[in-house]
Amino acid sequence: MVSANQHLIIHNGRGMLLDPGGHKVYSKLFSAMPEFLPPSSLDYLFLSHQDPDIVASINGWLMVTDAEAYMSAIWRRFVAHFGVDGSVMDRMKTIPDEGMRLDLNGCELLLIPAHFLHSAGNFHVYDPIAKILYSGDLGAALVDYRYVEDFDAHTEQMIGFHNRYMASSTACRLWADMVRNLDIDIIAPQHGAIFRGKAMCNQFIDWVAALEPGAEAMQEAFQLPA
Ligand code: FE
Q1: Could you tell me the pTM of the whole model?
Q2: Distance from the CA of 48 to the center of ligand 1, in angstroms?
Q3: Domain 7-218: which topology?
């Protein structure tokens, strides 16, 4: 329905799976994963926000691994409605609004705030060794190429989604100011193509900072239907 990227961070033989996705990819992902890491070596599942294409398969992953799932504190009890079994609820962990650091077998990952981009409780992951920022739905595009080559042309594939789904221009600017402090080589979203190289990553951050999406842009929509 909506194609999605699943990302796996491996450090010293242990792993974090980011936004494992819905039921349609669960069995494919589970059978493809041992090429890189046995599922039994997963320490963490990361859920950037609460959408079905992010979390719907979470019960399966909690059932077949010993991993802990990390998600926004405001979404845990709602995510449980995707059929999370009572026996694994204690491995549904929460991230406070201010974010946190998480040790992956010696690699300190940053779970950084990206609230209202687009979900009210939303996080990104920064890997300081690979210098990759995983940006969830921010930077999403429905395209069939893997890497962005022509940034300006690619913005046309992103703008409609971002104008409608990103909630706040204030959040866009605050996020941009925050991530400019990170040393980023790659920005990897959950949908679509990856931004490679510091120059293009900076281009993307500047593009986000200038967005005027969300409620402010939709004021004319708040009318009673004719
Ligand atoms: Fe989403």
Answers
A1: 0.96
A2: 8
A3: Metallo-beta-lactamase; Chain A (3.60.15)
